[in-house]
Amino acid sequence: MSDLPPENEFDVAIIGAGATGLAVACAMAMEDLKIICFDKMFGFDGQEKGDTRTIALLQNSVYLLQNLGVWDDCEPFAEPLNIMKVVDDTGRFPPVPDASFDASELGSDPFGYNIANDRLVSILAEHARHHPNITLFDTDHVASIENLAKKAVVTPFEGQPVTASLVVGADGANSLARRAAKITTTDWKYNQTAMACWFSHSQPHNNISTEFHRTSGPLVLVPMQGNKSGLVWVETPEKASHLMALDDISFKKKLSAAIHGELGELIDLSKRSSFPLSGQVANSFAKGRTVLVGHAAHVLPPIGAQGLNLGLRDAAMIADIACKAHMRGDDPGSIEVISKYDELRRSDIMSRTFTVDFLNRSLIHGWFPPLQATRAIGVQLLKLIPPLRKAVMREGIAPQINLPPLMHSR
Ligand SMILES: Cc1cc2nc3c(=O)[nH]c(=O)nc-3n(C[C@H](O)[C@H](O)[C@H](O)COP(=O)(O)OP(=O)(O)OC[C@H]3O[C@@H](n4cnc5c(N)ncnc54)[C@H](O)[C@@H]3O)c2cc1C
User: Fold this and answer.
1) pLDDT for the residue numbered 48
2) Ligand 1 mean position to 186 CA, how many Å?
3) Closest by alpha carbon to 190, among 357, 77, 10?
4) Of 77, 92, 234, 387, which is least packed with CB atoms within 10 Å of its CB?
């Protein structure tokens, strides 16, 4: 797997084999593009690697995985999300009423499914590994990328350079592909840390995902198979480091208090991981012969399950545009492809970045009375006006315009 094929020429070079990079590879391979994907994480055999994140995949991301032919392998490990509950736990005035959103109001599908991130990545990697159009190149890292007029040249740390018409930067928040394309970013910090783990409990979750809105940030419970739930708990860095240092029994006590005894007795607890929260958005999503997807393009706080779902929409969009160019006999890394991707992804990425940032800040800075009142009135309106509620639910799942074809149900 580590040896480059002799010809060293590819249509597409993907830097990074997280969920977004692998989704791009699997989508483009269906249309006969010749793809190479670089990362160090292959060979995962289905055992947990210590990534304790679970990912709430919203409906259109599930359609994407169905269209890629990988959903049948994911489904046995995924739990449907039927109801999303938002609980105001800020204690501020005026109180925001609790709100419950039921997927059955929109149709027969659940809002989405929750699956362990490492499971999802390993299933996509297995699919890519067996696809004849994809070469998985096992490298510590890609060392350099040059965006030239006719091709891009990608050089892995330990191997020979390869050329590609299009480079897909799926290499995370500290993206080399982004820097090599001379794309700048806007960055900001939150005084918050997210803790992620899963735990089992004595009472059923009834496929309800609950988001507690607290003054330090959200605390989210997401159903997993059996009587298990994924947890994302956002606190100040000081409080999070104190909680991370607790033994399991003390941590479970604190958690049980924070979720007001919901889910009954807390039983098994997985390893805990912590993620300092920050925000970042690339000032352009495409330049030279490079496009950015996923965390390389945008990093958001974990509110409303937006991050990877947004990244999968990036993946499906570049696959659609580049494959159509290829089928016409055009260059999949041409300026037309690059510009169209940048244009079509802009409103979705910028609006989600703004909304998630606003929601997060409205929790932290909600002492400002008009902000708290606006939240209270907004939730009340959603409760009282079903068409408004349905419109907000639909938009929360995915944007209603410019949704790539691969994200529609077939
Ligand atoms: C606590 C928490 C909970 C979350 N929950 C959700 C959720 O419920 N729903 C949701 O949609 N999103 C969620 N997210 C967001 C989601 O995890 C991210 O959006 C997603 O993991 C980003 O995937 P990615 O493939 O873009 O980047 P990454 O997962 O960061 O992958 C980047 C890959 O690039 C590789 N790489 C880096 N540099 C190089 C290089 N030079 N050469 C080669 N390879 C390189 C890395 O090894 C890595 O494999 C959550 C995030 C957090 C922190």
Assistant:
1) 47
2) 18
3) 357
4) 387
